[in-house]
Specification:
The structure is a homodimer. Chain A is 61% helix and 0% strand. Chain A is mainly alpha-helical. The longest helix of chain A has 25 residues. The first copy, chain A, binds a DNA duplex through helix 4. Chains A, B: InterPro entries: Homeodomain-like_sf (IPR009057), HTH-type_TetR-like_transc_reg (IPR050109), HTH_TetR (IPR001647), Repressor_TetR_C (IPR004111), Tet_transcr_reg_TetR (IPR003012), Tet_transcr_reg_TetR-rel_C_sf (IPR036271).
Chain lengths: 234, 234
DNA sequence: ACCTGAACACCGTTCAAGT
DNA sequence: ACCTGAACACCGTTCAAGT
């Protein structure tokens, strides 16, 4: 998928540098396009404008390139999304992972790092469920599965355990992205709820839609799952 | 949100019926637009073509209406999505709910019904995490929260428990939607994985990406959560 | 090898106008 | 009250052409 068109040999642009003069300040206007630059610009644009804000034309503009130049480097917009997503999901595991005696700490660390990466780029949680997995995401999945296996989850239960944990991270991150609105929005939602009077008494009373401790929700749910897993392996 | 523009008084279309002749078969061409018809057509279109296939123009065509007529009934495309989504999430609770002694059966039934509704309309799982909650979804959330409360979850833990269960359903449904591909696709994915050789040994060996028992995965994860909840309430 | 503009077949939405 | 077409400001992508 990220098969990567030619890369590496994108040098020799000598002739062009002179036209713009000696200004060190000429930004990226003189840099040739490259997959790396395209991906970096995509992430910037997505961070700034969200999924709907990334447009092939805007992306090209952002790179000060002709509108259609991107198509030499990339097959289509879907590929741009895929590359941007995987770029943001890179995982640098601390060395100590796997050496600790506590598998649980390893798992919690990996998952919190994953969640943090997605929260830093809110569009990623929306994109991940509809794209193929890139190498960085596959790597995270591999490490997660390995950690659970090392923790003593039986082979027969390993996939269900892996998917359950994956689902929890995905669900929690997506949910937070959708409900972690501004205080104003939250208050408006609660008021709207109150207007319905008798229809939603429980979630009105518990102020469910006003949740503001998403980190806590994530942790508590994860604890339930991990407790279940460790009690089950006996 | 679903505030509903005028509805009900959409009768008197006497003059038009004669032009088309006596044919009983003249389909919807004579019916005036209405929110209900628009929503029904949206669901049809989404079922047939997916999220990307729903277009205001196509929707109008489908309704044999002028291209821009929809805008009298609806503010914008986002509202159409919201109405279609909530339409598909209606819940008809069986009467016995709440009378059973088994809270756990109630919860499991509600969640499997919810998941089944979303799987019947795969676009709904993609849409739900980015739209405001409509009345039907709020109703499901209310019933879920109430069931957990009745089950003995302490008020202080109720919201975290509700969100955890919600996250599991969302995550599991979205995941299945993304990975439950055809056999061909799955085999291709596994082969691609094998090509990476040493990079993903665990998920290659466990054939994680070839998962085909998504119902089982959903159930097992849910059991872990509910076990945790019932053990915690003591 | 790399980039470009023009062109095609679409979008969502506004608006002034029709009945 | 309800519907319409024309128009505006966009899209993604193809293609023949440039260097």
């Amino acid at each position: 998928m990220a098969a990567a068109k030619p890369t590496g040999t994108q040098g020799k642009r000598s002739r062009r540098t002179r036209k713009a003069g000696p200004s060190v300040d000429d930004k990226s206007s003189e840099m040739p396009l490259s997959l790396e630059r395209i991906v970096a610009a995509s992430v910037e644009l997505l961070d700034a404008q969200g999924v709907g804000g990334l447009t092939m034309r805007r992306l090209a503009d952002h790179l000060e390139a002709g509108a259609m130049s991107l198509y030499w480097h990339v097959d289509n917009k879907e590929e741009v999304f895929g590359l941007a997503l995987d770029a943001v999901l890179e995982y640098r595991a601390p060395q100590h992972v796997g050496e600790t005696e506590s598998w649980r700490d390893d798992v919690v660390h990996m998952l919190e790092d994953w969640r943090a990466s997605m929260l830093r780029h809110p569009w990623s949680a929306l994109l991940l469920p509809r794209l193929a997995l890139g190498p960085n995401m596959l790597n995270r999945l591999e490490l997660l599965s390995r950690a659970l296996s090392r923790a003593g989850v039986a082979d027969a239960d390993l996939n269900a355990a892996t998917w359950s944990v994956w689902n929890h991270v995905m669900g929690a991150t997506i949910t937070r992205g959708n409900f972690d609105r501004s205080d104003d929005d939250r208050n408006a939602a609660q008021i709207r709820l109150a207007e319905f009077g008798e229809r939603y008494p429980t979630i009105e009373r518990s102020r469910l839609l006003l949740e503001d401790d998403w980190d806590g929700v994530f942790r508590k749910g994860l604890d339930l799952l991990l407790d279940g897993l460790s009690s089950r392996k006996g």
